[in-house]
Amino acid sequence: MIIVMKPGAAEQNIRSVVDYIEKHGLFAHLSRGEEVTIIGIVGDKTKLSTENLSIYKDVDRIMPVTESYKLANKKFHPEATVVKVGSTSIGTDNLTIMAGPCAVETEEQLMTIARAVKKSGATILRGGAYKPRTSPYSFQGLEEEGLRYMQTASRETGLATICEVVSLDAIEAAVKYVDMIQIGARNMQNFILLKEAGRSGLPVLLKRGLSATIEEWLNAAEYIMSEGNENVVLCERGIRTFETATRNTLDLSAVPVMKEKTHLPIIVDPSHSTGASRYVSSMAKAAVACGADGLMIEVHNDPAHALSDGPQSLTFEQFDGLTKELRPFCNVVGRTF
Ligand code: PEP
Ligand code: MN
After folding, report:
1. For the CA of 247, the nearest ligand
2. Which atom of ligand 1 lies at the shortest distance from residue 182's CA?
3. How remote is the CA of residue 196 from the centroid of ligand 2, in Å?
4. pLDDT digits (tens, 9 = 90+) for 193-247
5. Least distant ligand from the CA of 186
6. Mean pLDDT score of the chain
7. Can you give the C-alpha Rg of the chain in angstroms?
8. Would you place residue 309 in the very low, low, confident or very high pLDDT band (cuts 50, 70, 90)?
9. For residue 264, which of 124, 79, 42 has the smallest C-alpha distance?
10. Which residue's CA is the nearest one to ligand 1's atom 3?
11. φ, ψ of residue 222 in degrees (nearest 5)
């Protein structure tokens, strides 16, 4: 349920409504727009009488929110959320590009890639230190050592950093070194991990699960937000379908659907969705054209010898070419880059 207050409602009248909600053991979420304040109610609303609420001063109208996700819901928070990540922000008019290797391999490798992606316009360095691979025999990541290299690269280049976390220990380590944590597709419904990510205090990039519906994905975001962390960014990375020509099927319709359902920013990962570097550029442009707030792209200094996801990684030249080709697509949708 949301309570829409009248434009310019008095602070003490907003406070009275919040007090009434809290007195009934429910949580009141405030979204303050330029003129209108919306109070969202989270919890068992059968405990409340809407008739009583409707006679509170400055209450304009009371509307039900039937969706199971509340804090992530656009009805709770009609204005688009901007998520600050280190030196940059996601969800502004500026397109955000996160780029870097699938896995952090060596300090030298990471530094070389960080300098190159920064030169081409990326503002966030991605790099996996904990790699949840399909096979247990594949490279599993450098763990805390990899996080340290991410911090060194950030200090040298000024890039913000993001790293995937796969366990509570990884979250504890990540908060010491990086600006944003990533919940990978395979962990999208690991609810204990989602809650811990919510408590970490860091912004969270939530990738869509391999077979997750939009509703399940939004409920996963709700798990993070219900721990008091509203800094969540969604990432469409392809879903599993019957199609085998690409690694996954990139569901670009998720972008406009999410823009309708939630205030959270959404970015697109054309690397993990296609699984092939030759398709990355087309899908990156399409993602910008349909309104994505940003892109996550895998870039490697030597894709042929990458320890993970080489076939989908762009070379420095390919990445630089792509960023230049993206500019007109940004212009068409009114974004800068
Ligand atoms: C990744 O970003 O490195 C990754 C493993 O992605 P996903 O969880 O989307 O497969
Ligand atoms: Mn990868």
Report:
1. 1
2. 2
3. 23
4. 999 999 999 999 999 999 999 999 999 999 999 999 999 999 999 999 999 999 9
5. 1
6. 96
7. 21
8. very high
9. 79
10. 102
11. -60, -40
